[in-house]
Each structure stands twice: as structure tokens, then as C-alpha cells.
Fold this sequence. Notes:
Layout: H1 15-18, H2 33-46, H3 49-61, H4 68-80, H5 84-98, H6 104-116, H7 120-132, H8 142-154, H9 158-170, H10 177-189, H11 193-205, H12 212-225, H13 228-240, H14 247-259, H15 263-275, H16 282-294, H17 298-310, H18 317-329, H19 333-345, H20 352-364, H21 368-380, H22 387-399, H23 403-415, H24 422-434, H25 438-450, H26 457-469, H27 473-484, H28 494-506, H29 510-522, H30 529-541, H31 550-562, H32 566-578, H33 585-595, H34 598-613
Helix pairs in contact: 2-3, 2-4, 4-5, 4-6, 5-6, 6-7, 6-8, 7-8, 8-9, 8-10, 9-10, 10-11, 10-12, 11-12, 12-13, 12-14, 14-15, 14-16, 15-16, 16-17, 16-18, 17-18, 18-19, 18-20, 20-21, 20-22, 21-22, 22-23, 22-24, 24-25, 24-26, 26-27, 26-28, 27-28, 28-29, 28-30, 31-32
Amino acid sequence: METEPENKHEYDKPISDQIFKSGRKLGSYKPGDSTFYSLIENYANSGDFKGLDMVLYRMRREKRVFLEKSFILMFKAYGKAHLVEEAIGLFSRMVDEFQCRRSVKSFNSVLNVIIQEGLYYRALEFYKHVVNAKHMNISPNTLSFNLVIKTMCKLGLVDDAIEVFIEMPIRKCVPDVYTYCTLMDGLCKENRIEEAVLLLDEMQVEGCFPTPVTFNVLINGLCKKGDMARVAKLVDNMFLKGCEPNEVTYNTLIHGFCLKGNLDKAVSLLARMVSNKNVPNVITYGTIINGLVKQGRAADGVLLLVSLEERQYPVNEYIYSTLVSGLFKEGKSEDGKKLWKEMVEKGCKPNTVVYSGLIDGLCRVGKPDEAEEIFNEMVNRGCAPNAFTFSSLMRGFFEMGKSDKAIQIWKEMENDNFICNEVCYSVLIHGLCKDGKFREASMVWPQMLSRGCKPDVVAYSSMIHGLCNAGSIEEALKFFNEMLCQEPKSQPDVVTYNILFNALCKQSTISRAIDLLNSMIDRGCDPDLVTCNIFLTALKEKLDTPQDGREFLDELSVRLFKRQRTLGAIKIVEVMLQKFLSPKTSTWQRVVQNLCKPKKIQAAVDQCWRNLYC
């Protein structure tokens, strides 16, 4: 903000005496408008706002001409310094105080400053104020619309963004590649993939040709959805349009196949990536290592790590953290410790992520006391614990039956004003309920909600379990119905359903349990071994005419087969065989048809012949 200096005499000297003392050595030098622009540029780039105030004051005194490009430099400087309101204030004073005409360029510059600071609602407010102000006479251009669409998508207001997109031709602004990419990305993040794909066709009809970035947005959206078949078609389309996949494309594809558990395809893509002269980076290899760990192949991940180090690839802390945690999850605690030691010996300084991975691993193998020692070392070395660190440590003590120690950690977090997230609350509620301290858990629940933390499936299931154990089944069902209205991470899973099945069957209300089972299947959740055992026990012990459950399980498997949920159906058949309950002949026929696909059998036979003669 330009103000008159406290000591005006400080600026009374000619600027040439103060700043351009060396100018005389170079010959005649007269400070003109370009000189002042250079001063503004230098002060803005260095973030010297006091210097800017000096120059602006001097220019006003000498009635110099103010150029809009000077203000754009100052807006950017304010943006770098996170001084949003100062930028907005300077924009509003351009005409009255500096007699400088504002245009859409300075408008876009300030709008971008607000957006970069993450003040999205403030950005929309500023946009509407300027565009609707007749005295400003500023009409938005394509860049203005792009910034507004980006802001709306950031806020999840995709429908509003679409309205702005439709408004563009009316304002005589043609959407560009950036416009389409931004809107596609917003749609994908709202899981509206079909609409995003339609935009790809529309932009080509309108003569706007997609770039690799455009395809990457859609590929990323489809990969997250798990629709790899459509991803393959999109990549083919990409080649047809003359767009070569880049590192981002390959990394996204590899991540998508790893999420689906198709590591062979991910590795083959890696080979193709190299053959197409795209250099894999630490993200590429980190994704594959993460995929290996998720499949219980941490040892293979370690071999890949060794290979990377031999090729002198930089390996980051996330890869080490993933492998250390993965080895512990697989019960290979000694290997996990060995990798940790090797990492330190190689000069890789452990940070919060790696420390947290080790702490989580030790807790998973029942060594929370050892994990606490690592935690103390972590704090002493200046690494700040995060929510994952604390929740891992709490979970470890709860699992070992040391609930008092877990609660002590929670209290220490609160005393240190640590901001707990949903996971921390979930671990605490689950641990308290499991330890029979439902009353304490029910006191934590409203505290969690009041702090804006949304309970996940574990927290809900734990509360439902606690209520069922207390005999309050109707109250538990209210929690369950509340879950159904929540976002995906809070939707009931098979564990939640099993808790309710068990409670209902113990009360001899098997019909209500079966109704709930039907609802569970309709919602796409498959029964497991625990589900089957609950109903088998209930049918045997709670009915006037006891049943062995053969017909019940057989019918359940058939229903799943009919819905193309083969894996779930086969699990039911496996349970039947374990219980010596023979499935019907027609059910066996379905099993054989699904397991023995003609193409798979033929492929296996062909492979055998190749092995014999090659």
C-alpha cells in the first residue's frame, strides 16, 4: 500500500542522487519513465515494498505516467508475499490515485493472486464485483473464464463451472485447451467421467485439439474408477490424434494397473515406457513398489529397490517407508529393521514419513514399547509426529491390551494442541469400545463431530458394536442408517453387517437379520466366512425346526452367481465344503462354468505345448 513517507525530506533529494550515483560515471543519465519502471520491476522482484512506496510517491510528485504493466508487476509481488488484500486495494486505487486505466490484464493478475492463495470464495466475489461494476468497464476474456472455472471446480461447484463455460461464447470468448482440461478434471473429481469424456468429443468438433494433458486428465479419472478397458481405448485414441504419451501418462497408467492388482501389466508398461524414450522417475518405481507391497510381495519390492540403487536412481523416503511398513505387515520384522538400518547407513536421513512407517510396523507385530522408543528418538531428532504416527502408536497399545497407555498418548496429543484427524478419533473409539469402555467412547463421539471430523467405517462399526453389546440394538440400527447416508469411506462393510447380524440372531430375530442380509447384497457387499457362521449357528440353534443351513447357503451362492459376483459366490461354496454341506448339482455346474472359462483353458493348453516344443 503506497502512503506518504513519515519523513518526506528522505525523498526530497533527486532520485539520481540516491539511486543512480554510478550513473554519472557512465555518461549523461536522466531518469525517465522507463527508469521508474525498472525501479518498480527491481523492487517488486525483491519484494521490497518500502522501496515501491518510495517510487510510487516520487512518481506522483513528478506527475509521471503510470503504466498498467507496472501494476501487474506489483500484483505479482503482493501475491508472492501472500498480501492478497493489498493487491486488491491497489487494483481499486489504480484509476483514482494513479490515473492508470485498468484493463482485463490487471484484473486477471489480481484474480490469479487470490486463487493462488486458496481464497476461492473471495476470488468469485472479486470477479462478480469487477465484472458487474459498470464504471470499471472490464469484460472478462478467456483467461478470466478459465480462472473462474478453475476456482469453481476447486470448490466442487462443477455445475456452476459448466454454466460459466456455456456463457463464454455469449461473451465472445472461445474456450481453449486449458478450459476443457480444467472442466474435465473437475468432472472427473466429482466422478462424472461420462460427461468428461463427452467434452473430449465436443472440443474436437469445436476445432480445439486435445494435448497429452487433456488425455492425462481423463486417463487419471478412469484409472481411479478402475475402468482399465476404457483407459486402453483412450490411449489408442491418443495415438490416433498424434498425442504421444508422456511420463505423466505412463505413471498414471502404471498406478491404475497397480490399484487393480495387475502388476504384470504395470511392469510391461514400464518396459514400453523405456522403449518409447520416456525416462521412469522415482514416482514410477515408487508406484510399482507400493503395488508389490499391497500384494504381500514386499521382498520383491526390496529387490527392485536394490536394482534402483545399483543404477543410482534417487530413492525417496516414501519408498523406504512403504517397504519397511510392508515387511512388518508380512511378519518380516527382522527384515524391516535390517532395511531401516541399511537406509540410515547409506546416509538417508529418516524423516517423519519413514519414522512413522517403522513405528507402525513395530506396533503391527505387537511391539508398541519398542515403537515408543523410536517415537522418542524421532521427537529428539526434531521430526514432528503426524496423525499417522500417533494413531499407529495408540493402535499398538490398544491391541496389546494397554488401553491406559493409549489414552495417555491421546491426552498428550491434546495437551500439545495437536490437531487430531478422523483416523486418530477412529482408533480411539475402536480401542475404547473393544476394551469395553463404551461410555468413554460415546463421550468422544460428539467431540469428534464438533471438531469437523467425519467418522469413518471403523468408528461407526465400533459404536454399533458397543451399542449391540449394551443391548441397544435399535440405537445401533439408527447409527447404521446414518452410515448409509454418508460418503463412501463411511459406508458399512461386511464387518459392520456381521456385528448387526450377530446381535439380531442372538435376539432370535432371524427374519430381520435376513432382511438386512438381502439389503447388504443389494448394496454390493458380499458375505464372508463370519457371515455364514453367524447364520448357520442361528438356523441350527434359534429355530423351532433346526436346519443345517445347506439350502440357505446354496441359495445365497446362486444369487451371487446371477449377479456376476463370482468371487463372493465361490467363497460361499468353499464354506459349504468346509462344513460338509454339499452344494446342489446345478450350483456345481455354475462353479465349473465360472472357473473353467474355455478361453483360459485353451490358453493354458497352448502354453503347455509351447513349453514342450520351445
